[in-house]
Amino acid sequence: MRDHWNPPRLWRLVFTGLSFALFGLGGLLLRIICFPLIALLERDPQQRRRRARLLISRAFCFFVEFMRRTGVITWSIDHPGRLGRAGQMVLANHPSLIDVVLLIACMRDANCVVKESLWHNPFTRGPVRAAGYISNNASVEMIEETAAALREGQTLVIFPEGTRTSPGQMPVFHRGAAAIAIRGALCVTPVVIRVSPTTLTKAEPWYSIPARRVHFSLSVGEDIDPREYAQAAPPPVASRRLDARLHEYFVQELTKNERSAP
Questions:
Q1: Nearest Cα to Cα of residue 60 among 33, 82, 30, 84
Q2: Locate the Phospholipid/glycerol acyltransferase domain: which residues (predicted)?
Q3: Fold of 9-260
């Protein structure tokens, strides 16, 4: 149930800043202490990767709970049990900076396509490398690497927009996500993310605090089988058709949410 407590704006500004500081400090601690310890104790590369991803998921859970308990955000998710299956592509729109944090917090062992810049950021490069996340450099090698991860049975989180959506605009997907799904996914599970009021968008700095507390709503949809498209047409055509269906789904859901919003 949504918490109706609405702390003053100054309170939320202070704890938003503390949340970002906590996130950066946590990333450094994982890189300097936790991941080297995992590497020392676990020789098997796949087990190291699983332990790293589990640790990141738990750290994100702690981070989200800190933001919730301090009055920065509230959040909800429906059908969380649909997430985290083998060979599943979790495909979401990207309205806010912490979308990936919320999704990864819901899954114990998930791969993720992340911005290439995160591989060089001192606060994030440790976690993304230890977890074996994939850089979104849009190369042919990246598409094949991502498809191969799905074929191995990994869960993959991807934001097909490639960047955060500007407020008031519908998402525009790059076709690479559909191409990856055609090549390797057993299922594509859409997740519609809605933020009210908007915050941490592409157009808003972190200190632009809205008048009331922000609520994140994650709606996990039913699976889409990419093999239906792969079997009916050559890969380029199948990718276009799947991309069109996914885009139509998100536009319909986001428009429906807008109409039903108070």
A1: 30
A2: 88-196
A3: Glycerol-3-phosphate (1)-acyltransferase (3.40.1130)
